[in-house]
């Protein structure tokens, strides 16, 4: 399939703004690198007389010669019009109404161009858009043009469109220049954009780490100044973004950026405060090693369970709290680890919506740790039958290496489960 061989008609002009339009001969994006499902959706929307653009991170990744994780589409068709086009679709969301077009093994997400609503204009659009008194957007369903849609996106590198009508790249915000500069730049004023959606600060850090880009200086300053606004972030979105952040495959760089931007404490207040204390020095070593291990697993294509991720991330902190509980409340090591973990994760859950089942699994991973030191046959077989055994073993193995806890128990379990977890 040669994109240069066809000369389809140009799309209608966007009256709301001018864009840099890069024709097919001047950029590397080809339909060959776009999933067949996304191509089908793009062409059906186009053939129904609507604009059909590949949008956002998929375009960015294709320009960087990276394989996109998913392909999102933007259009001037409304969700109801899209639903009528695709029998295999459903309308989802309230904060952002989207259409999912369902294929075997793939979901193509299609959004209608949105205008974005300024705080002073929100009242007249109250049925479709809503901001809290702090300026946080909690609903955004005011339809607009492609130009308006680009301007309401978070970063310039995520606001590029690929037009299936003529295979051009459309850039309203200077995203192509920022890709060349390897810069994460906020569209608009960073303070305003981070205030209306604090999760964007986490996304800036993740994109910078994943892409090897620098965060533009004004945005860096704003992140350093706006940490307390994370309290207004949606706990459910925060959970998803934290998972993406720590399992992005570039966790070491994530930790560097979190430290440079003094952003650990806004995300995890207790952990951040402890790491600044002299006794938290070992915790810095632990967390750095945690990210290295997570990166190794991701690079090897292994699926990392979220409970194991959180258990590792907070492990040193939970172990130190458990030591205090053993001394002050005369709890057994297993009971102390389970209580210390449960209490902290429950507290954390007020800010990050960790599912109840995951919270229980994190606590069980920690509670099982002392049992690895009891190697009689009956205890060994009982432990190995525990549903949480593998994650608990990976934690035990990691902790032994990180804190040089080499001993006969580690050797014993290594022989039984050599090679598991890398």
UniProtKB/TrEMBL annotation:
Task: Name one molecular function that GO assigns to this entry.
Answer: ATP binding
Please give the InterPro entries that the UniProt record associates with this protein.
NT_sf (IPR043519), PolA_pol_head_dom (IPR002646), PolA_pol_I (IPR010206), PolyA_pol_arg_C_dom (IPR025866), PolyA_RNA-bd (IPR032828), tRNA_ntf/polyA_polymerase_I (IPR052191)
Which EC number(s) does the record attach to this protein?
2.7.7.19
Q: Example GO biological process term?
A: polyadenylation-dependent RNA catabolic process
Question: What range(s) does the Poly A polymerase head domain occupy?
Answer: 52-185
What gene name is given for the protein in this entry?
A: pcnB
| Catalytic reactions on record | RNA(n) + ATP = RNA(n)-3'-adenine ribonucleotide + diphosphate
Function text:
Adds poly(A) tail to the 3' end of many RNAs, which usually targets these RNAs for decay. Plays a significant role in the global control of gene expression, through influencing the rate of transcript degradation, and in the general RNA quality control.
Ordered alphabetically, the record's keywords are: ATP-binding, mRNA processing, Nucleotide-binding, Nucleotidyltransferase, RNA-binding, Transcription, Transferase
Please name the catalytic residues of this protein. Answer: 70, 72, 154
Q: What is the name of the protein in this document?
A: Poly(A) polymerase I
Species of origin reads Kiritimatiella glycovorans
What region holds the Polymerase A arginine-rich C-terminal domain?
A: 331-416
Question: Which family does the entry's similarity section mention?
Answer: Belongs to the tRNA nucleotidyltransferase/poly(A) polymerase family.
Task: Specify where the region named Disordered lies, as residue ranges.
Answer: 1-28
Q: Point out the coiled-coil segments of this chain.
A: none
Tell me where in this chain the tRNA nucleotidyltransferase/poly(A) polymerase RNA and SrmB- binding domain is found: 212-272
């Amino acid at each position: 399939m040669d994109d240069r061989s066809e000369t389809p008609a140009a799309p209608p002009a966007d009256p709301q703004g001018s864009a840099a339009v890069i024709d097919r001969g001047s950029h590397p994006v080809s339909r060959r690198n776009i999933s067949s499902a996304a191509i089908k959706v793009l062409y059906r929307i186009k053939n129904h007389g609507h604009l059909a653009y590949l949008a956002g991170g998929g375009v960015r990744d294709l320009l960087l010669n990276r394989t996109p994780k998913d392909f999102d589409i933007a259009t001037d068709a409304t969700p109801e019009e899209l639903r009528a086009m695709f029998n295999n679709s459903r309308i989802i969301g309230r904060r952002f109404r989207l259409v999912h077009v369902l294929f075997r093994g793939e979901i193509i997400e299609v959004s209608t161009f949105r205008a974005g609503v300024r705080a002073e204009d929100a009242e007249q659009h109250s049925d479709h858009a809503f901001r809290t008194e702090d300026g946080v957007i909690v609903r955004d369903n005011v339809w607009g043009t492609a130009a308006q849609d680009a301007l309401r996106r978070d970063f310039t590198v995520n606001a590029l469109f690929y037009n299936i009508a003529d295979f051009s790249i459309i850039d309203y915000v200077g995203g192509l220049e920022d890709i060349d500069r390897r810069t994460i730049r906020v569209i608009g004023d960073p303070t305003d954009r981070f205030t209306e959606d604090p999760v964007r600060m986490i996304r800036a850090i993740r994109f910078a780490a994943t892409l090897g880009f620098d965060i533009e200086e004004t945005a860096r300053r704003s992140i350093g100044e706006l940490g307390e606004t994370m309290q207004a972030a949606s706990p459910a979105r925060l959970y998803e973004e934290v998972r993406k952040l720590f399992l992005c495959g570039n966790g070491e760089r994530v930790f560097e950026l979190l430290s440079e931007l003094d952003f650990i404490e806004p995300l995890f207040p207790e952990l951040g405060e402890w790491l600044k204390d002299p006794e938290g020095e070992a915790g810095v070593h632990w967390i750095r090693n945690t990210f290295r291990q997570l990166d190794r697993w991701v690079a090897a294509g292994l699926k990392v369970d979220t409970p194991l991720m959180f258990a590792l991330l907070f492990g040193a902190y939970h172990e130190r709290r458990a030591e205090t509980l053993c001394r002050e409340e005369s709890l057994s090591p297993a009971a102390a680890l389970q209580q210390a973990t449960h209490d902290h994760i429950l507290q954390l859950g007020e800010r990050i919506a960790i599912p109840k089942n995951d919270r229980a699994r994190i606590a069980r991973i920690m509670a099982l740790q002392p049992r690895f030191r009891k190697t009689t046959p009956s205890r060994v077989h009982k432990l190995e039958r525990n549903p949480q055994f593998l994650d608990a073993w990976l934690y035990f193995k990691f902790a032994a290496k990180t804190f040089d806890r080499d001993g006969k128990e580690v050797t014993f379990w290594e022989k039984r489960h050599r090679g598991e977890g890398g």
